[in-house]
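input
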Amino acid sequence: MLRLIDLRGQRPHDYSAVVPRAGFDVAAALATVVPICEDVRARGLAALRDYSARFDKVVPEHLRVPREAIDAALAGLDPALRQAIEVSIQRRRTVARTCEAEPAWREATLAPGARIGYRIQPVRRVGLYVPGGLAPLASSVLMNVIPAQEAGVEQIAVATPPQAEFGGLPHPVTLAVCALLDVDEVYAVGGAQAIAMLAYGVPQVCPRVDMVTGPGNIYVVAAKRYLRGVVGIDAEAGPSEICVWADDSADPAWVAADLISQAEHDPLSASVLVTDSPELAEAVRAQVVAQLPSNPLEQRLAQSLGGSQSGIVLTDDAAQALEVVDAYAAEHLEVQTRDAAADARRVHNAGAIFVGPYSPVPLGDYSAGSTHVLPTGGAARFSSGLTRRSFCRDVHVIEYDAEGLAAIADGIIDFANAERLPGHAHAIALRQTSKEASR
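output
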């Protein structure tokens, strides 16, 4: 349980090659996914029903969930749970509306008659995928819907697997969150076939979308990879990850509980501790063993915590620990050190950073106000989590008048000729000739 990787006295050329990492072969899954996507494209509704029977063991009466079923799910929601969800919605919306907001229009005047505008334009229609397998992640509804709404997306469609135990409807908590967010276009369709439905559109069922976001299993991720270009996607999210950077000031029981919390998601989930304290390493390992039997998901936890993707990385000092943390580029990074705030500011690569002992990752999963749709598999080195900005496009608006163009026309013509593109040069020169002839 939690294998030890001892890097003391070593300075690998590439720490990313020695840290634990989940095996997640999206390319291999494409062989299964491509025929499904193309079948949905060709047969539409019939294919969706066939795959629902095959994979979900139930065929919904209506693939689009009736509004009355959504309203009934909200009416049946436990009041305490409803209050907790409403707090999560309010906090996530506040962050999206304030921290993530940008001016919709900016412009720069470069010279007389030469102006460039910069417009932030929301995507018009998006499809949001909400997992419903090992864990029906109703929290993913608000994490996807709220930033889309705040960005100004006009049409939002949610796809989530049908559940046999609920008569072919999605999980009622998922539907209730949709109701709280006033989303009534919900489809009881899961897996790769849901991504294909959203990307291609299915006549009389679901119009195609411009973008698909949200986490899912390897087949959902493979479908997003295959259909990227047909439709925009957010990212190829793999199994959940947590990395805890801690020193000997950390509480081993708390660190162990946090590692266990993310291991619940999937047998491939990764839980990694990076520390320069051998004593903490052993204490955390002992705490993990002690805490597991009380968790109903003990078997799943044993797989994820005992797998090659999880472990304890022991370093010489805090400087080496930081190198390891940056190389790992965790989806979720907790910093539990003596000066956690200062250490967190030194981190370059992480999807989200949780500072200090009272900011555990489950806080961010639900009610911190931050996004929980985050880059995995080291992608935090170059990509970001899902925010209001994810649902927008940048549009440059170029407006030059005759004088503005004339001021740089000769340079453009020279540049175009240097690249052996005479038609480019001619398009500029023609305007200069016409301007001179009109004088």
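quick obs: The radius of gyration is 26 Å.
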